[in-house]
Amino acid sequence: MKKILITGGAGFLGSHLSKRMLEEGNEVTAMDNLFTGNKSNIYDLLADPKFSFILHDVTQPFWGQFDEIYNLACPASPIHYQKNPVETIRTSFLGIMNVLELALKTKAKVIHTSTSEIYGDPLEHPQNEKYWGNVNTIGIRSCYDEGKRCAETLCADYAREYGVDVRMLRIFNTYGPNMHPKDGRVISNFIMQALHNKDITIYGDGSQTRSFQYVEDLVNAIRLIMDYDKKELKKKLDDYGWDSDIPVFNVGNPDEFTIRELAEKVVKMIPDCTSKVSYENLPSDDPKRRRPDISMAKEILGWEPKIKLDQGLVNTIEYFSKFK
Ligand code: NAD
Ligand code: UDP
């Protein structure tokens, strides 16, 4: 049994990871300030004596002896991270700093959840881990993108300078049950709009693309990356040609869809849906194309996503139906 800390543990991804870690027989502490997370995501876990919840802001230092720390705390939906941009960048930077300091003192292993947003509006397609990105430093998305880029730098420097065992995932758009119905990201928006026969709000002309990953596939990748033996992982990465001291994996589903295709799919999947499409302004710096190159995860971890968008949408629509 391992002692696990999950920051952002009451959020969408954090609640799934907490559940999985408990099912595997571990003792799990979920830390969250409930900025975008919700205790309803973890109600069923609270009855488990091996689970505890701490209401705490990750930007404030914390202490505890853990074998593994998973750093997920950070608002992830553009409307939420843009609502309080200074707090977003503080959370990204100070959050991982506090995690790395604790890991350094206690020898805990760390997983940091980075993002495809570090590639910005990419000039290379698909994006592989060696691409350095195309990010605006002063735009409305920068608090998130640059916060996450800086967090990656901190992870790399704590690994190089102090030997902290930290592994990073660049997560591409992930969806599933436990997303907040008012989360604001495209899948939750479209499903909630379609369930209520409201207009489907496409931003721009809907030709921009995303590649959507179901949450279960992501949790599988997180577990594989954390469990890999450090030396073995380093060797595999060297052999692969990854010329860095820190493991970084793109984790996403390479099936790419335009936002218009997604809207059509969601409307078709909801019986008797009468929603029409309404076109709204495209927010600035909205990436035009996004698709992960997951060759490295495939070869080294033997991982690839299994859940197709149609199947994942069925599960997610079923979840959101309870908010109808
Ligand atoms: P989410 O908003 O549902 O979860 C984030 C959680 O962090 C919430 O529970 C929130 O309350 C908590 N949090 C925010 N600020 C905090 C703070 N200062 N102190 C403590 N807790 C705080 O989003 P999510 O989709 O579950 O994302 C989890 C992580 O994965 C984030 O770091 C995000 O950047 C990363 N990620 C997610 C996606 C995705 O598509 N879901 C893609 C790329 C990266
Ligand atoms: N989007 C949209 N309508 C919505 C919400 C989002 O057309 O109601 C678009 C958004 O402009 C972006 C894509 O869908 O091009 C994905 O947006 P999301 O907020 O889910 O995540 P992002 O990948 O932009 O961080």
Structure report:
The protein is of the alpha/beta class and 324 residues long. It has a single domain (3-175, 211-254, 289-305), classed as NAD(P)-binding Rossmann-like Domain (Rossmann fold), CATH 3.40.50. Helices cover 40% and strands 17% of the residues. It is built from eleven helices and 13 strands. The strands form four sheets. A seven-stranded parallel β-sheet has the order 3-2-1-4-5-6-11, with helices on both faces. Strands 7-10 form a two-stranded parallel sheet. The model has no long low-confidence stretch (mean pLDDT 97). Uridine-5'-diphosphate is lined by residues 77-78, 173, 185-186, 189, 201-203, 208, 210, 259, 282-283, 286.
